[in-house]
Amino acid sequence: MKIEDAAFNWSRNTKSLVLSAVVYGYVSTIFVSGLLCRRFGPRRLMLVGTAVVMLGVLLNPLAAQVSPFALAAVQLVMGMAMVSV
Q1: pLDDT category of residue 1 using cuts at 50, 70 and 90
Q2: How far out from the chain centre does Cα 68 lie?
Q3: Residue 7 in contact with residue 68, Cβ under 8 Å?
Q4: pLDDT digits (tens, 9 = 90+) for 17-68
Q5: How many CA atoms lie within 13 A of 49 on its CB side?
Q6: C-alpha distances out from residue 27 to 11, 21, 46, 56, 83, Å
Q7: Within 13 Å, how many C-alpha atoms sit on residue 14's CB side?
Q8: CB of 21 closer than 8 Å to CB of 79
Q9: CA atoms of 72 and 75, how far apart (whole Å)
Q10: Phi and psi (nearest 5°) for 9?
């Protein structure tokens, strides 16, 4: 048993889902972020994006304890917010 597998007994597919959630969130909001930037300005968008990413980083350990799908949801939202950062 590896050290990184000791805390969570997740399958390879579950790990892949969690790790790819950030990319899915990022890719899904690339074009929308341009529209939001035009409407609200780059400073506001970057401020909100940074705040959401910070909140996501704080919620990661809690979401991982709840379920891998909760962690994937947090990662997805973080990916969506990372577009503006």
Answers
A1: very low
A2: 13
A3: no
A4: 999 999 999 999 988 998 999 999 999 999 999 999 999 999 999 999 999 9
A5: 23
A6: 25, 10, 17, 18, 8
A7: 11
A8: yes
A9: 5
A10: -100, 70
